[in-house]
Amino acid sequence: MAELTKIFTGMEKGPEAIQSNFDLMNAQYTADTGWVKVALENATGDVFIRKIGKHVMMRGSFKTTLTSSVTNQLALVDSLPDEFKSTTAYSPIIELAGPWDPRYIIVQVACSSGKIAQIGGAQGTTVEVEAIRWEVD
Known about the structure:
By secondary structure, the chain is mainly β. Helix content is 12%, strand content 35%. Strand 1 (36-37) and strand 2 (43-52) form a beta hairpin. The radius of gyration is 20 Å and the shape is elongated. The relative contact order is 0.19.
């Protein structure tokens, strides 16, 4: 949290202190990294992450170069840059087909370590990612 200046009646340079507080809050909650390309492993394609304030989102598509399963998870990213990590354990799970479907795939981000993993999916499976979001601390 930004260190804000306490505002009180009759203070000197009150409007300046208020503006400084606004500037600090804007910097913390509206700072935007723009879309940053993620270096993939065990996959080819284009995956991007972006942080606006405390909110991180991921989008893109990739094609796996190995087969994965529930017992053999496929690491797609070893670690995201620190500014995209969180103390939250995991992002929401993104299921790309139902568990009854032979193309069943789960993609999840371990937010604290910055690792991205895929569970399920044959080699060469193309995965579209649009809805993975989490917050940083």
